[in-house]
């Protein structure tokens, strides 16, 4: 049995495996510019975030109906459960779908079809986090928030993703203020490719409660001190960082140094269909590359529940934490 954990940084569109992409393409009469899954997999060699995003947005063309989104989410939840995930806070990118004529309601209702049965079917509790594309305008983000209003009973929070450099958090100040006024939780990608200043800005201007990635905080010791002091969780994605060349090899990943510094680190998969592993694969990869002790593996799992948006369900959080404490490795 794998170590129980929460996954807090997972783009549902990034779980689109080549086999499902081709199945959905056939179902929807969409032609993909790849002969087969093998040829598609050969395109999974990325130079940076943008080169990945190009393929990520291209493949989304196969997602058209509620059932497509339901199938996508259900496939993820099944895999996640097998990797020990007990709770998943799932990002989705509505603007990327709306741009193709797929409405917000289709996306949310479709995802919900899978999420509403997730506990009984997979033993995984869930939350949905709607991300704004930071390389689109602030006006577009605001219109997206407006379009989400009829669905807010199923959306826990907002996030910020896509191409980071040149799109600082401050661009989305008003949108985040409006989201906060609606009672939505706030997170943002910052410090993946962008500088440490983007992390500070995400905290001070957007009021985020968690930083997605936050990798580059290590360049600024004062920022590290602040993140430790304020117990700001970071949702790290080690295999993603290697594939998108934020770090050269996993052995160079700063995770161990970050834990030693007292940062509240979590390990997540980001876009597992593209980066060579789901969340337990990420845990195992960092354990092997960085020589993490079993107690550090437990710390990562504990952190994932502590950093989750489960506070309206403290009983459940306590149950998950107890499962981590009781977990025996190697059994
Ligand atoms: N790692 C990542 N960074 C920014 N935007 C993304 N969208 C999907 N994955 C992403
Ligand atoms: Zn991400």
UniProtKB/TrEMBL annotation:
Cofactor(s) needed for function: Zn(2+)
SUPFAM superfamilies: Metallo-dependent hydrolases (SSF51556)
Binding site for Zn(2+): 9, 11, 189, 270
The protein's Enzyme Commission number: 3.5.4.2
Top EC class, one word: hydrolase
Annotated ranges, domain Adenosine deaminase: 4-317
Gene3D superfamilies registered for this protein in UniProt: Metal-dependent hydrolases
Keywords assigned: Hydrolase, Metal-binding, Nucleotide metabolism, Zinc
Site (Important for catalytic activity): 213
Lineage top rank: taxon: Bacteria
Keyword NAD in annotation: no
Active-site residues (renumbered): 192 (proton donor)
CDD domains the record matches: ADA
Catalysed transformations (reactions): adenine + H2O + H(+) = hypoxanthine + NH4(+)
Cofactor note: Binds 1 zinc ion per subunit.
Binding site for substrate: 271
Family: Belongs to the metallo-dependent hydrolases superfamily. Adenosine and AMP deaminases family. Adenine deaminase type 2 subfamily.
HAMAP family: Adenine_deaminase (MF_01962)
Reported function: Catalyzes the hydrolytic deamination of adenine to hypoxanthine. Plays an important role in the purine salvage pathway and in nitrogen catabolism.
Protein known as: Adenine deaminase
